[in-house]
Amino acid sequence: MTEQNPDIRLVVLDMAGTTVADDGLVEEAFTAAARHLGADPAGLIDHVRATMGESKISVFRHLFGEEAAAQEANRAFEAAYAELVDAGRVEAIPGARAAIERLTAQGRTVVLTTGFARTTQDAILTALGWRDLAPLTLCPADAGGRGRPYPDMVLTAFLRTAVADGVRQIAVVGDTSYDMRSGVRAGAGLVAGVLTGAHDAGALRAAGASHVLGSVAELPGILG
After folding, report:
1. Which UniProt keywords apply (predicted)?
2. Measured between alpha carbons, how far is 54 from 113 in angstroms, rounded to an integer?
3. In which band, very low, low, confident or very high, does the pLDDT at 174 lie, cut at 50, 70 and 90?
4. Residue by residue, what is the 3-state secondary structure of the chain?
5. The pLDDT value given to residue 169
6. For 86-100, what is each residue's pLDDT tens digit?
7. Which of 97, 131, 132 is nearest to 20 (CA)?
8. What is the CATH code for 10-22+91-223?
């Protein structure tokens, strides 16, 4: 049980850095996208690191300004990331699948979310054999397009699953400050950061994390 809300019914989990090991793949794909547009990735990478967890198209809009350039960068990013997935570079965080299965066995509904486009999300799920692991997966386009740090994906999960009586029965878990902010803005009863991804404990707590876990593998024990 959580001290704040012992009746968590919906668990919204981030993917890259939380349930899926990143190992620098986002930065590799971004570097390829920047070079595709003739930009120097070294001058932009700090912003990419700081905004891990945000919708990728939003990041590119900030960096490249014009919508056409942002869309072109996003397409290049998705293509580069897909190549990394096809090369077998994507792995699950140790214990992540078992944690999701245990949460499900506890009677909770798990939703997997991402800042990637749907095609990339599906490629990751397929590569890991996770297509049937959760009843619902969401990308920014499934929730109006804004992505994190907005609460839209969390609230879309709440509405589509209809398993929680209110937002206080939601747990939001991720590795970035953007994940924490989206959970806080959604009014989730539990907002937990994990230390397997982009941001450290200080950044996670500053963004509103009520718990900081070593990894998602600890989550079923915290809840149940």
Report:
1. Hydrolase
2. 11
3. very high
4. CCCCCCCCCEEEEECECCCEECCCHHHHHHHHHHHHCCCCHHHCHHHHHHCCCCCHHHHHHHHHCCHHHHHHHHHHHHHHHHHHHHCCCCEECCCHHHHHHHHHHCCCEEEEECCCCHHHHHHHHHHHCCCCCCCEEECHHHHCCCCCCCCHHHHHHHHHHCCCCCHHHEEEEECCHHHHHHHHHHCCCEEEEECCCCCCHHHHHHCCCCEEECCHHHHHHHHC
5. 97
6. 888 899 999 999 999
7. 97
8. 3.40.50.1000
Which amino acid is it at 13? L
Phi, psi values for residue 11, rounded to 5°: -115, 115
Output the CA torsion sign for 146, 149, 155, 161.
positive
The CA-atom distances, in angstroms, between 107 and each of 13, 133, 146, 165, 176 are 16, 14, 30, 15, 27
pTM for the whole thing? 0.86
Rg (CA), the chain: 16
The ranges assigned to domains in the chain are: 10-22+91-223, 25-86
- What's the length of the chain? 224
Residue that is written with structure tokens 């876990």 in the block? 213
* Nearest by Cα to 167 from 191, 146, 147, 149: 191
The whole-number pLDDT of residue 6 equals 56
